[in-house]
Amino acid sequence: TVQRQLADLCGVKADVIYYPMKPITSDRARKYPQFRAMLAGRTADPNKRCHSAVLSLVKAGYSESEVAIVGPEYPGWGARMGTVSDSVLNDLFNSVDYVMMTSREEGIGLPAIESACAGAIPIVLPDLSTYDEFWAASPMGPFYSTFTSIDKVSQFIIHMDSHADEKAAMKAAMLQYANLYLRPLFSKEAVAARIPEL
Known about the structure:
single chain; 198 residues; alpha/beta; 5 strands
């Protein structure tokens, strides 16, 4: 997205060097069992459409105390965690079932990528700027393509929460996808190895 914007708006041909993801591992230890879902990043940015994520969770029956809000900004709803260490972030990703990233514009969308690498289910929308690049071919792709309204997202969450076996299978499939496709693109080692090529 940023590469296209630079070309369209500034006439600059740029190479892409992805920002590396945090050192996220999957252990599903649930060190924060009070949380079922999470939002992370600059939640006050209108392009993040945090209100859509919150409304989806409310419609799915989630209470404010069950949703962790991580990052420097607070949308006014959820359990405010603020900026956390990499270790706490890893524990949070491993504790929740869903990480909501209902953004419209993303350079990459690291919260969704990192959550998949921890075995959580990232919730992204089909009009996300990086949807085709990272998510359309994922195991969640057929579901993501139906997420055209807040109601559709909440219905998916309700269904998964009512079918623990399906939810566990989707978490496992997303973790496998992340380990095979996303982690090799976004680990610090992979990003550093590509810099000399440019």
